[in-house]
Design brief:
Strands 1-12-6-9-10-11-5-4 form an 8-stranded mixed sheet, with helices on one face. It has a two-stranded antiparallel sheet with strand order 2-3. The chain starts with a helix and ends with a helix. The longest helix is centred in the N-terminal third of the chain and has 20 residues, at 24-43. It has 9 helices and 12 strands. The protein is 29% helix and 20% strand. It has 303 residues and is an alpha+beta fold. It has 2 domains: 3-58 and 251-301, no CATH class; 60-244, no CATH class. The model is unreliable at 184-216 and 289-303 (pLDDT under 50). A hairpin with a 2-residue loop joins strand 10 and strand 11 (227-230).
């Protein structure tokens, strides 16, 4: 169903309920409100309901921000820091190559205006991740760290270090409160109250990595000023799984993934769920969401 078809369907339901006329701009606003409610309802049930997991899957995005081993060995992306950082590569002006130029067509670059802040984030101040505009929830986060003690010293790479000398491992990265992250006035370890959920992969990585570097651990992050602040600084990669709020134009689109496939691309839903969102919007437009005086099923039965 396209956005124009959605407007026609809304007019039909509103006409049956003898509601006043709404402009296209007003309809878009109500559809966005209904979409937010629709997403929140299903997000709350993702852990227990198969249908909600299927619906929310259309809005889940994977992001992978990383530095290569060559970037580490060649001391690229230093900026004003003494070690390579993600914020020198993934900027608000686009992805930067090792020469300092913006990669043509990269996310947030002026040569690719379709990849806007609504979809892609960037890094600032070292390893702080700035969320894109339509970010709603962080579902999972994983960091890839490396043996910094054997690679870096006093802001420089040890002489003779090559890419084969860099040993990396992945750890889960979980959310903590601002107080747990920054309150160093407590006598106890600020992480002592955090329940750590270890995975088999993390345990195996720790065993392998502990032979050559400090003991691996679970990393943490917190939210400050719309950014994800990590406890780790020497980061090789950040992998995020997030739930993003779709735009109305994308949600109500008849586009497919291409070819002969009828599969929906990311951020779109089938007609069945599009109609549910429209019905939520019309309830809000009729002003009877709380009272239940307006029932979509009753109106549709009159057709």
């Amino acid at each position: 169903m396209t956005l124009e078809e959605a407007f026609i369907y809304m007019d039909m339901l509103l006409d049956k309920a003898e509601q006043p006329y709404f402009t296209s701009e007003e309809k878009e606003k109500y559809l966005q409100l209904a979409t937010t409610e629709f997403v929140n309802i299903h997000y709350a049930k993702m852990g227990i309901d198969e249908e909600s997991r299927k619906v929310m899957g259309a809005f889940v995005r994977w992001y992978n921000y990383s530095l290569s081993k060559n970037d580490i060995v060649n001391a690229d992306y230093l900026g004003s820091y003494t070690y390579p950082i993600l914020s020198e590569k993934y900027t608000d002006a686009g992805v930067i190559d090792t020469s300092g130029a913006v990669v043509a067509g990269s996310a947030l670059s002026s040569t690719n205006p379709s990849l806007t802040n609504q979809e892609y984030g960037h890094f600032k101040y070292g390893n702080q991740y700035c969320f894109p505009e339509n970010h709603l929830y962080t579902i999972s986060c994983q960091l890839t760290l490396y043996n910094t003690n054997e690679v870096w010293a006093s802001g420089a790479v040890y002489p003779g270090v090559t890419t084969s000398d860099i040993k990396h491992y992945s750890v889960p990265c979980t959310s903590v409160s601002i107080g747990e992250m920054y309150d160093h006035t407590k006598k106890e370890d600020p992480w002592s109250k955090i329940k750590k959920k270890r995975t088999v992969q993390a345990e195996r990585s720790e065993q392998e990595f502990s032979q050559t570097n400090t003991k691996a651990k679970e990393a943490h992050y917190t939210y400050i000023e719309g950014r994800m602040i990590f406890t780790e600084t020497f980061i090789l990669a950040v992998r995020l799984q997030t739930l993003n709020l779709p735009t109305i134009n994308r949600l109500f689109s008849a586009a497919t993934v291409g070819g002969n496939s009828t599969s929906r691309p990311h951020g779109t839903l089938s007609d069945h769920y599009q109609r549910q969102i429209i019905q939520l919007a019309v309830r809000k437009m009729s002003g009877t969401t709380e009272s239940g005086g307006y029932q979509i099923k009753d109106i549709e039965s009159q057709k």
